[in-house]
Amino acid sequence: MFERPGRGERAVLVHVTFRRQSEQADLQELGELAFAAGVTTVAKITTQRDKPDPKHYIGQGKLAEILDAVSLHEAEVVIFNHELSPSQERNVERFVKCRVLSRTGLILDIFAQRARTFEGKLQVELAQLEHLSTRLVRGWTHLERQKGGIGLRGPGETQLETDRRLIRDRIMAIQKRLDKVRQQRGQSRHARTRAEIPTIALVGYTNAGKSTLFNALTGAHVFVANQLFATLDPTLRAIELTGIGKVVLADTVGFIRQLPHTLVDAFRATLEETSQAHLLLHVVDAHDEKFEEHMHEVNQVLADIGANDVSQLTVFNKADLLVGQGFQSGDCERDKDGKITKIWVSAQTKEGLDLLREALQGRLSIETIEGSVYLAPEQGQLRSQLFALQAVLEEKDLSEGGWKIKIKTTKYHWEKLCQQYAGLASVFQGKDKKRG
C-alpha cells in the first residue's frame, strides 16, 4: 500500500465516456466530490471507449497520459469517475506509481470525514470494511505464504487470511450494534405511531438545500454548506402544524447518482426513517440544469430502500435564482382534489414557506370517525374510555337506560376500541372523515 496523506492531496481526475451507454457519469460532479473530500484537482483526463479495458479500464495511451500528469503535477492520487475492480485498481497503481481511487472509494472517504455521531461512524466503518475486504490483497502480497519451518509451525494461516478473518469479525460486531440501533429506531417510530405523530422525511439529491429548508422550518441549526454530502448524520425535530399538531421532521443524507450499494446497506438503519415516513418532501434544486436526472436518481434509491410507495410532495428549492424562467417562490401545482403536489420555495430567503406549511397540513390529513353510538347501562367502562380519549362531543341519556353519545375520534383509536369491545361497530352510526 501507499502512504496516505491527509487533506490537501493533489489529484488527477479520470473520466471515460462510453459510446454505447445512454446514462453517462458526470465529470463536473466528480470535481464537486473531490472538492468535498478536500482534494485539489490538478488535472482532468477524459477519453472515449466502447467498453472498459479488462486489465486497466482505459487504454495504454491514456495510462501514459495519466503517468505524465502525475509526474508533472506531483499528484498523490488518481481518481476514476467509475467503479474499478480490485485488480484494475492494482494494475493502474503499478503503472502510475501512486494511489488510485474509484468513485465509491471517494464517496466513502467523504462519509468518513463527515460522520459525527456514534451511529454514523459505525455505518461508515461498516461500508469501508465491506469495500476493503475485496482489496486486501493489495497490502499483503508480500506475506502471502504459509507459516512454517522449525519454531514457526502454527495454524498455517496466511497474514492475508488472518486479516480477512479479523475484518469479518469486525463486520459482524458492527452489524449487531446497528441491529440494536434499528430496534431502537423502530421503538421510537412505534411510539410516534401510537401517539399519532406523523413523520415527514426530507429526501433529495445531495446539495439540493435539504438542511437549509430543515433549518427554516424548524429553527434548528443543522450544518449547512455548499458541498456534496454536507449532511450525513440524520437529525429529527418536532414542529407544530395548524390543524395537525406535532409533526416530526427528519433531515436525511443526500442521494447521488450510483450511490454505492455498500453505503445503502450500511445506512439502512437510518434510511428506514425514510421508508417508514408518512410523507416525503422531495427537495429539488430548481436552479440545477440536471434537476430531472437528479429526481430520477433519487426515486431509484427510494425504490432500492422500499420507500417508493410513500406519498411525495415535490419541493423545488432555490426558486429565488429562477429569474425569468416561468416559476417563482410561492408558485404551486395541485391535483384534482385541490392538494398541492409541487411547490416552488426559497429556503434561503424563506419565500413560499407559508404555502409549504399549508401544503403539509393538506397532505397530512388524519382519518377520523364521527357519529353516534348507543351504549347500554352495563357499558360504563367503554363510556369512561370515550371521555378519556376526549372523543365525546355530546351525550344524551336514554329513557330505557344507557346513553346516546355523539363521538369524534381518530380511526386508529376507533379500531382499537372495536377490537377491545366486540359488537361496538354494530351500534355505531356515522362515517369516516378527513381532518387537516
UniProtKB/TrEMBL annotation:
Cofactors, names only: Mg(2+)
Keyword Transmembrane helix: no
UniProt keyword list: Cytoplasm, GTP-binding, Hydrolase, Magnesium, Metal-binding, Nucleotide-binding
Subcellular location: Cytoplasm
PROSITE patterns (alphabetical): G_HFLX
InterPro entries the UniProt entry points to: G_HFLX_dom, GTP-bd, GTP-bd_M, GTPase_HflX, GTPase_HflX_N, GTPase_HflX_N_sf, P-loop_NTPase
Residues that hold Mg(2+) according to the record: 211, 231
Functional note: GTPase that associates with the 50S ribosomal subunit and may have a role during protein synthesis or ribosome biogenesis.
Record-linked PANTHER family: GTP-BINDING PROTEIN 6-RELATED, GTP-BINDING PROTEIN HFLX
Family assignment from sequence similarity: Belongs to the TRAFAC class OBG-HflX-like GTPase superfamily. HflX GTPase family.
Subunit structure: Monomer. Associates with the 50S ribosomal subunit.
Name of the protein in question: GTPase HflX
Protein source organism: Candidatus Berkiella aquae
